[in-house]
Specification:
- The longest helix is centred in the middle third of the chain and has 20 residues.
- The strands form three sheets. This protein has a three-stranded antiparallel beta sheet with strand order 1-3-2, covered by helices on one side. The protein has a three-stranded antiparallel beta sheet with strand order 4-6-7. A two-stranded antiparallel sheet has the order 5-8.
- The chain is built from nine helices and eight strands.
- The protein is 38% helix and 13% strand.
- It is globular and about 55 Å long.
- α6 runs antiparallel to α9.
- The protein is of the alpha+beta class.
Length: 254
């Protein structure tokens, strides 16, 4: 009716008749629609198609992900090194932080923050995307102390540490917090996202795809997340002369 292009999100065919996936899909649409912020992609409409089931429409953002930008920087592509200076990358990071902070003010935790879920538009837009693992939290979440341990029952053979997984442990291993890696569901709150933002800052500072070695097995990555076993940014890439203050912020978050 408005004659504009939008992005339409639908479920994969194998998920369309599964109640947990349907509930999460609706939860994602409703959560995203409640956080109207310049750094969070706007949701326009939710409905049901006869052939593919539920859908929701969002603003169509043209551009590339922060993950792609960091990959180009890691490869040393001159065009990207010239455009994406440390100052520019930090502006992008701060914009993402503003969007996440607003979501937290509404009692919403993302749970899957990573460079692949930060979209950079052609005209300076910074959008935090993919709220599929969203969790609604209460006002007392920051003072929670009890821990609910959930058995890890996921087959991780052949899964990349920068890919979202779901099950007892949900999130992206290379960017998930220790409580997520442990499957401690009741411990997940705003600090879970702060950890992931710290891991994103780590990648921005080091021009690496994750805080962990790319050759590690997924189980090893999860254990290192739990143990806090990773090289400080300045040690991971000494050539970049990373400011001590920025490293301190990154390590505080992680």
């Amino acid at each position: 009716t408005l004659d504009r292009e939008v992005a339409i999100k639908i479920l994969r065919p194998s998920y369309r008749n599964r109640r947990p996936h349907l509930e999460r899909f609706i939860k994602e649409a409703r959560a995203t629609s409640q956080i109207a912020h310049p750094n969070i992609v706007p949701v326009h409409e939710m409905g049901v198609f006869d052939d593919v089931g539920p859908f929701f429409t969002m603003k169509k953002v043209e551009g590339e992900t922060l993950k792609h930008v960091l990959r180009m920087l890691e490869l040393g592509i001159p065009e990207y090194k010239k455009t994406y200076t440390l100052h520019h990358l930090l502006e992008i990071f701060i914009s993402a932080c503003q969007g996440v902070a607003y979501a937290h003010s509404k009692g919403i935790v993302h749970r899957d923050l990573k460079p692949a879920n930060i979209m950079l538009g052609e005209y300076g837009e910074v959008m935090v995307m993919d709220w599929g693992l969203v969790k609604f939290i209460g006002p007392t979440s920051m003072t929670r102390t009890q821990t609910e341990m959930v058995k890890f029952d996921r087959n991780l053979d052949g899964v990349d540490a920068t890919t979202t997984i779901d099950g007892a442990i949900s999130g992206t291993p290379a960017f998930m917090s220790p409580e997520q890696a442990l499957g401690s569901l009741s411990s997940i709150d705003e600090r879970t996202d702060l950890y992931s933002l710290g891991a994103i800052l780590y990648c921005i500072l080091t021009h690496r795809r994750s805080p962990y070695d790319n050759n590690l097995q997924l189980e090893d990555v999860l254990q290192r997340v739990v143990d806090g076993d990773f090289a400080p940014p300045r040690k991971r890439n000494p050539k970049l002369k990373i400011p001590k203050e920025l490293q301190a912020i990154c390590l505080k978050a992680m």
